[in-house]
Design a protein that fits this description.
CATH topology of the largest domain: TIM Barrel
Helix content: 25-40%
CATH architecture of the largest domain: Alpha-Beta Barrel
Oligomer: single chain
Largest sheet: 9 strands, mixed
Number of helices: 12
Distance between the termini: 48 Å
Strand content: 15-25%
Number of domains: 2
Shape: elongated
Radius of gyration: 24 Å
């Protein structure tokens, strides 16, 4: 049956993603406290601060006390440098790649050298070193590391690091194995600051902390940091509502059929905006009242059963304290990282706590 639109109310059709910078900084402070007073707590701000805007998140974290950042690509470091100024260090996980000279020389991006080839090719003044302690992704294994030990010593790296593969599983045997491997490999570098742990490693305890920790997902409200403050709220505007009779279907494939007279709200957003089509059993919220998503999530639209609401609000909320990025991730069979980094460019981003 034909429904009503929100046009007459003059409401915006743009979905709104609210990002709480205060919560990000509080999460960093909490993780910093867990890392111990002698340990520097850096911040991983790659992928545009996990999709939330490095240009806003970076300065907020600097004001909170962060002096070292990590990015995944040199170009990310250049963009971050423009936002946070010249004082903080910015390490690049990808190391030294062809075309990175300008980033290194003009913007002070510090490559974390990952291979003997990178070690031999790099002529810059500052660097870090990445070792492979068992993840088999980036970094040098022991024989390769030993083959360039003198070259590395001559470069006086500011950091030697590795990365845990299973830190979100506290009892996984890989954690202890990688800790032993990293400790053994770095024994010949007693004066070089060391870093092994991201968010999950911080939670494993002080043996994993070394001289620096580098939290990422925990800053942005994601697991495995269960004490994190939620960072994002996502409000989706209601475009139209319509009344259905029992037996009428909704959406592609007619996959949902009303079993009672129902009122359906169509909201603006879909899988083009990072709301994964695979998500099952999720709700949108009117305040604290859950309204189930019905039918398939499509590219730009989601249909929601609002039959039990006394009145239809101008927007419904997908992400809040009741349904977090990790809740949504579980419903889609993925992880919170993918939800955050998939949030699209069509949202109006609103920042809380921006100075």
């Amino acid at each position: 049956m034909q429904g009503e639109t929100q046009l007459e109310q003059g409401l915006t059709m743009q979905a709104r993603l609210t990002i709480d910078l205060n919560a990000i900084c509080d999460n960093w402070r909490a993780l910093d406290a867990l890392s111990g007073s002698a340990v520097e707590t850096a911040a991983v701000i790659k992928a545009d601060a996990y999709g939330l805007g490095a240009g806003k998140v970076g300065p907020a974290l600097v004001n909170a006390g962060v002096s070292t950042f990590f990015v995944a690509q040199a170009e990310e470091g250049v963009a971050l440098r423009a936002a946070i100024g010249n004082s903080p260090r910015i390490f690049n996980f990808s190391g030294y790649m062809k075309g990175d000279d300008q980033a290194v020389k003009e913007y002070g991006i510090i490559p974390v050298l990952n291979s003997a080839e990178q070690v031999r090719a790099y002529r810059g003044a500052r660097c870090g070193i990445q070792l492979d302690s068992g993840m088999n992704r980036l970094g040098m294994e022991l024989p390769e590391f030993a083959s360039v030990a003198l070259d590395i010593a001559a470069k006086r790296p500011e950091l030697v690091m590795s990365h845990l593969a299973c830190a979100d599983e506290p009892y996984h045997p890989m954690n202890a194995a990688q800790l032993l491997a990293f400790t053994t490999m770095t024994a010949a570098m007693p004066a070089t600051p060391k870093a092994l742990s991201a968010t999950g490693g911080i939670l494993l305890g002080s043996p994993y902390h070394f001289d620096m920790t580098r939290p990422g997902i925990g800053l942005y409200g994601g697991a495995p940091f269960s004490d994190a403050r939620p960072v994002v709220t996502l409000d989706l505007p209601v475009i139209q509502t319509r009344d259905l009779l029992a037996g009428e279907a909704v959406g592609y494939g007619a996959s949902w059929v009303a079993t009672r007279p129902s009122r359906i709200a169509t909201v603006s957003s879909g899988y083009a905006d990072g709301i994964l089509r695979a998500a099952k059993g999720i709700n949108l919220y009117a305040g604290e009242t859950p309204c189930p998503v019905v039918g398939r999530i499509s590219m730009d639209l989601i249909t929601v059963d609002v039959t039990d609401l006394p009145e239809i609000p101008p927007h419904l909320t997908l992400l809040n304290t009741l349904q977090t990025v990790d809740t949504l991730a579980t419903a889609a069979g993925t992880i919170g990282y993918e939800i955050l980094t998939s949030l699209g460019s069509r949202y109006k981003r609103v920042y809380i706590g921006e100075s």
